[in-house]
Give the backbone structure.
Amino acid sequence: MTNRSIPRCRDINWLGQADCKLCAMRKSLLFARLPEDALDDLMPVDKMILGAKAILYREGESAHHLYSIRTGLVKLVQLAPNGMPRIVRFLKAGDVAGLEALSNGRFRHTAEAILPTDVCRIPAENLFQINRRHSELYQELLQRWMQTLDRADEVITQLSTGTAQGRVSRFLLHTLSEPDGNTCVALTRDDLGALLSLTVETVSRTVAEFKRQGLLEEKEGLFRFDRAGLAASATL
Amino acid sequence: MTNRSIPRCRDINWLGQADCKLCAMRKSLLFARLPEDALDDLMPVDKMILGAKAILYREGESAHHLYSIRTGLVKLVQLAPNGMPRIVRFLKAGDVAGLEALSNGRFRHTAEAILPTDVCRIPAENLFQINRRHSELYQELLQRWMQTLDRADEVITQLSTGTAQGRVSRFLLHTLSEPDGNTCVALTRDDLGALLSLTVETVSRTVAEFKRQGLLEEKEGLFRFDRAGLAASATL
DNA sequence: CGGAGTCTTGACTCCAATCAACAGCGGTGG
DNA sequence: CCACCGCTGTTGATTGGAGTCAAGACTCCG
């Protein structure tokens, strides 16, 4: 009944080939604006399901596919100079992982599932070919570029600056929650640390303190928090 | 004779309209791959020269133009939650400032010249129109996207993590210097702090310490440094 | 010459890192 | 079934590094 019933394996399971024309989510994905017949050129697209902690690809590997995320949550990780992993971005349903496959053939991050995650694996070469004929796809790619950059800049200005309290507050308020929602996925202290550039202990203390103050509770894999209350710490 | 002879004003001077077909730098700019006749559609392009500290545009302003940088150095700044400015990226010759004008009409950063800087100002609408007809431009834009994202991620993992010594070393070694060069523009302590998320005092102390150790000298607006010596601090 | 802006240095404080111990939970294997 | 182990999270004591506050040096410029 609890979140413990969700799959916890680290596997990647292949669910067969997808037919993009029949895809229920198509309109919210990268290919939203493509005419239906162009979708044939994407094939073969493989549907895969990742357990939590499954690794989609690793930094430095040569990149032949990109991944359209249907459900779930993925973290993009790079190694910091001291050897510790640093989370640079999250990818949610509708996002695309591994777009660097379109240009230079090497992944820049390690992509690891945080929640069980469904993805479609698309051969980079096919997308590349479609690009030649359909500028709609380019428009969509550019759109995503702006979005992605914004998120990267947000990590710089909002999540790598200020006190531990401030960073955790801002994470809760902006990063994974709906604009006016008061819940978000309960990350491990480890992941929070890797995102906010703090140690596990500091994150644990900060989260615990918020709980004591009644600003935050954690239940069934979710953080539920008090927006107004946290806003006070968010400028620290 | 020294760098003091360079202009130090904060003005923006309009130098007249450009004829892109005659531009000596065209091949290294955004329009490298465009056929010559497409360049007509860019017009009118204004050539401008900025003194150090001149502001090209401000965060939140509505964005009708973008700027191709011919020479100089520009910082992109966002306000951190505590109200202090944070530098998220530098733009050098060949880079484009204000690409967000292509999509959502508001600048996401304040762009300020650090050195005297030449730019060409291009109406966003014109570029947008060219995009419809020439996918070469899209390719170039995508290429730049990857580059820009890489730089943003580098600020996250390399410049916002670790000790003050580590951050300053890594800035010197990677951010504005040639891959194997041993010089880079001598930023103010203020700008270094805004980039590395450190206070002016901490930057000053760190730079001073590197100088005492003979790892770094500052002359005529340049840092000259010892790559091998700094590499030791770069993992801190 | 005086003033503004930048840089440096010192003394002190404070926040987060570090080191260490332990609790809780789930999974595993004897 | 239960003992053990690994993983995650918590908490405490201590340390260290950067922030803060304050004063003064230096440079450029009017």
